[in-house]
């Protein structure tokens, strides 16, 4: 794992954006930075990450538990405890076979689990913590040709719901899933997703916790 170092200063929340080099991640990072947040952009490709608008950029393999834990420690040390984790790592691949599963599972589920586990204590202690993920409306209508994707996205949704359950009693943090059919020309524009993510940084945690925001229409 490496860092390109901080670029200037920010205010308000310290927001970690994982999957920052994708279309949604780039849009979210730029929008959050414009809104005055300290944005920590995380990706697996240093060259692509260099062009993401952010306060700081870190290269990390989020399928590696030790590397992801180290990422959280470095963010805490260099920018302060994270207030929000915006997890937009993902991927799509049709199929129901083992090869397709092995390609999808780390991207959809393992990265979400490990990133959440690495940052959850900071989010819980923030007083206004946020976990925001991107879910798929298609997972509610599974097909045999896309069975692996539907199962894994459903599991990811269950993980977010479990995090929400853990935060329900305290009422100071919120786990939220944004639902889309696709991202881009055939679905929801990255800018629309980014705008909603910025909006979700505010509001009442109790009201937002466990919510599923449908941007698929």
Could you please describe the fold and organization of this structure?
The chain has 217 residues and is an alpha/beta fold. 44% of the residues lie in helices and 18% in strands. It contains seven helices and eight strands. Helix 4 links the parallel strand 5 and strand 6. The chain is globular. It starts with a strand and ends with a strand. The relative contact order is 0.15.
Secondary structure layout plus pairing:
Layout: E1 2-3, E2 14-18, H1 23-34, E3 38-43, H2 46-49, E4 56-59, H3 65-79, E5 84-87, H4 98-125, E6 129-136, H5 147-167, E7 173-180, H6 190-200, H7 205-208, E8 212-214
Describe the strand arrangement of the main beta sheet, using strand numbers. 1-4-3-2-5-6-7-8
Round the Cα radius of gyration to an integer and report it.
16 Å
Summarize model confidence as the mean pLDDT: 92
Low-confidence stretches: 2-11
The main pleated sheet reads as: 8 strands, mixed
Strand content: 15-25%
SSE sequence, one letter per element: EEHEHEHEHEHEHHE
Shape: globular
Indicate the multimeric state: single chain
- Binned, the helix content reads 40-55%
Count of helices? 7
Based on helices, strands and strand pairing, what is the structural class?
Answer: alpha/beta
Strand elements, count: 8
CA-CA gap between termini: 38 Å
Give a quick rundown of the structure.
The chain is of the alpha/beta class. Helix content is 44%, strand content 18%. The protein contains seven helices and eight strands.
Salient structural properties:
eight-stranded mixed sheet; 7 helices; alpha/beta; 217 residues; 18% strand
